[in-house]
Amino acid sequence: MTRHFLRDDDLSPAEQSAVLDLAARMKADRFALRPLAGPRAVAVLFDKPSLRTRLSFDVGIAELGGHPIVVDTQLTHFGRGESLVDAARVLSRYVSAIVLRTFGDDRMTELAEGAGVPVVNGLTDGFHPCQLLADLLTIREHCGGTAGRSLGYVGDAANNMAHSYLLAGATAGMHVRVAGPAGHDPSPAVVERAAEIAAGTGGSVRVLRDPVEAVAGVDVVATDTWTSMGQEDDGRDRLTAFQPYQVNKTLLAGARPDAVVLHCLPAHRGEEITDEVLDGPQSVVFDQAENRLHAQKALLGWLLDQHAAEPGSPTG
Ligand code: CP
Ligand code: NVA
Fold first, then answer.
1. Whose CA is nearest to atom 6 of ligand 2?
2. Alpha-carbon distance 161 to 143, whole Å?
3. Residue 316: predicted pLDDT
4. What is the rounded CA–CA span in Å between residue 197 and residue 68?
5. Locate the Aspartate/ornithine carbamoyltransferase Asp/Orn-binding domain: which residues (predicted)?
């Protein structure tokens, strides 16, 4: 069975920790490891826009000695009905791994179904697991570790980032609280799965309505856009409902005095987060953005190692 990274819980706590250890080593000595030397190619496919994911995978694959092939899928047959299973079968003959950013998680699963090489989720409507590897690396760096640390995520608690904080945070042994307005709660299935993981790691998960309670005394305050890609024209009045969840100086004052602030970017300054906080001394968002590069290099290296060890693997 080829290992994929479609959701945060595709890595066990020990595996997540191993990937983060490798990311720290790769960050400390950026050009030392070249598992893609050959060069072996990696396809990075985008159904949605991107700056950080696109660039960090492109640069990271090159730094690993590989050949990145970054594709806007509007230029392919994806929009003309080519089956993702067929596309994955074809791509698996050319490349060593496939990264996809898309809409529904069913599309990600379909691609993985046809793939004979590892598939990585570069963001779906449901999850953003590569971002969480970067976030956890950043938390390790600024909070001295993840186990036992607390994180309060406020804003759109129904989106990919909220779901990934729940799953990846629980996997890392963190105490994760998420809070959003009514109608923007996380998927009950994801909360249940995160609680199950947390029971084994010493972490915990809580879904709240009150943003003040969500950030009270936490080590990490996190937020994300109130309007995710694909929701721009859904006609919902988000600004009014989300306003109490803005990460501003007043809300942040309820967290630990040395709490750090995360935002995956792009930020809608003045909506989910103020300039004062984003540019302030507690913000670590640019370390977080940099860590996409190191975390994804480590993930690709780790997945390719796993793949090489799989029975019948051409690279094994
Ligand atoms: N954080 C993140 O995934 O950014 P992009 O949408 O620019 O890739
Ligand atoms: N929730 C956001 C994350 C962007 C990186 C979105 O899906 O648009």
1. 228
2. 20
3. 39
4. 34
5. 148-302
Atom of ligand 1 nearest to the CA of 51: 7
3 state SS of 273: strand
Neighbour tally for 262: CB within 10 Å: 26
Give the distance (Å) from ligand 2 centre to CA of residue 38. 34
User: Which one-letter amino acid corresponds to residue 278?
Assistant: L
**Residue 292 falls in the annotated catalytic set:** yes
11: CB partners within 8 A, 6+ apart: 5, 19, 171
Q: What is the ipTM of this complex?
A: 0.99
Query: Does residue 315 carry a pLDDT above 70?
Result: no
10 Å CB burial of residue 33 (0-12, 13-18, 19+) is: middle
Instruction: Give the DSSP per-residue string, 126-178.
Output: S--HHHHHHHHHHHHHHHS-STT-EEEEES-TTSHHHHHHHHHHHHTT-EEEE
Pairing of strands 150-154, 220-223: parallel
Q: Whose CA is nearest to atom 7 of ligand 1?
A: 51
Main-chain dihedrals φ then ψ at residue 314, nearest 5 degrees: -65, -25
One-letter amino acid for residue 25 of the chain: R
Helix, coil or strand: residue 295: helix
Is residue 96 within 8 A of residue 36, CB to CB? The reply is yes
- According to the annotation, is 34 in a ligand binding site? no
What is the structure's pLDDT at 314?
60
Angstrom distance (rounded) from CA 21 to CA 13: 12
For range 165-174, the mean pLDDT:
99
For 254-264, the pLDDT digits (tens) are: 999 999 999 99
Q: Which amino acid is at 130?
A: C
- 42 DSSP β-pair partners: 68, 97
> Which residues line the pocket of ligand 1, CB cutoff 6 A?
50-53, 123, 131, 264-266
Rounded Cα distance between 97 and 298, Å, is 13
What are 85-115's pLDDT values in tens digits?
999 999 999 999 999 999 999 999 999 999 9
Rounded distance from Cα 214 to ligand 2 centre (Å): 21
Is 228 near ligand 2, meaning CB less than 6 Å away? Answer: yes
Cβ(231) to ligand 2 under 6 A?
Answer: no
